[in-house]
Write a structure and sequence with these properties.
7 strands, disordered N terminus, globular, homodimer, DNA-binding, 204 residues
Chain lengths: 204, 204
DNA sequence: CTGCCTACCTGTTGG
DNA sequence: CCCAACAGGTAGGCA
């Protein structure tokens, strides 16, 4: 699991589309991935069409709601070049439900139980259901309610998730990436990339 | 805010449908209403079609549930001719949700905070959430749980509400009326009237 | 199981 | 145009 930093990535990578740093909306995303934990779904790849500006144009006004999960981005320099310190946990191609009106993301059980144990939470939450805070590619923090639904026997991110989907303009088939800090496993990161569809340039 | 008692109302009222006492399922309901506190929605008016008999035919068998909010009606003579002692608080046209499966009535915030303050309750309840008891047009008492939902920033009647909707056969567009005793503000009253739809006789 | 109940959550919208 | 209010939802517990 070697890390490839931004300078080495600026040259093109074999068997991949031309690399442009902005393709990775999780900044400096690590290519070296154990196949089981970090599959590269056939249906997804890095998308040359860029929404970086759109993201920044959007709601960067602070929501006055005191319960808002979003927090101010850190100063950019605080987040540069710490990619070597991140390890991927897993990624998930988004289903229509994950980006639809259900306002929840189902976390595959094996990943959930490995990385986000409930009941002894490190997220500051209570017995069942806790708050997980993830840093995004802009240094912005996203807090999601994470819990287990007995009825469907599944782990989900609920509160806060729909705002993330909206701000990142995620759609079914896009992929979300979950990482953590190599030395401080409580520092969590979230990223995303666009679905790749053959012959179609996505310019959402 | 003059009161019009039942005898003065038994003659027809200009600009209103023919007045029939039974239109008012809150007995002797007061017509003279401050516009802000007690609006007369365009979509609603007094409904000549009568369900008084239906109400009495209905579940007068005592619900064996120990938590039943309903109590026995007082003897009728105890409730006659005290209309002059009631003042309207507010009314609400019922939404589909108010009469649907959510089993709750949203109380518009300005009315809730004016008439049903939480936290210093006179309803015998605890800090957040108390029981409010209302007398209906038959002298029957209805006890509802009244509380505040932080997440939606709204005041609601919950427990007991669905039984009231069912017994009174209320539908979306019908209006519920809340009154209190002029001298004893702790005595609360609830009434209702049918939605008026132009050209249609409601015979529910 | 069904219906009720509490306590959440969110998209919409009118003021 | 923004945001508080609310209409319309949810899960989970319980009787």
């Amino acid at each position: 699991m070697d890390n490839i930093n931004i300078s080495s990535l600026s040259s093109s990578t074999p068997h991949k589309p031309h690399y442009i740093p902005e393709f990775y909306h999780h900044h400096h995303y690590n290519h070296q991935i154990p196949p089981q934990e970090h599959p590269s779904p056939m249906s997804s790849t890095y998308n040359p069409s860029l929404t970086f500006n759109l993201i920044q144009d959007e709601n960067d006004i602070d929501d006055p709601d005191q319960n808002d999960e979003r927090q101010q981005p850190l100063p950019p320099q605080q987040n540069l070049n710490d990619d070597d310190d991140k390890e991927p946990m897993f990624e998930k191609p988004l289903t229509p439900s994950d980006v639809g009106k259900l306002n929840r993301l189902v976390i595959p059980k094996q990943h959930a139980e490995k990385y986000f144990p409930l009941g002894g939470g490190g997220g500051g939450g209570g017995e069942s259901g806790l708050l997980l805070s993830f840093e995004d590619e802009l240094g912005k923090f996203w807090r999601f309610r994470y819990s287990y639904w007995n009825s469907s026997q599944s782990y989900v991110l609920t509160k806060g998730w729909s705002r993330y989907v909206k701000e990142k303009r995620l759609d079914a088939g896009d992929v979300v990436l979950f990482e953590r800090h190599r030395r401080d496993g409580d520092r969590l990161f979230i990223g995303w990339r666009r679905q790749f569809v053959w012959g179609i340039q996505h310019t959402r």
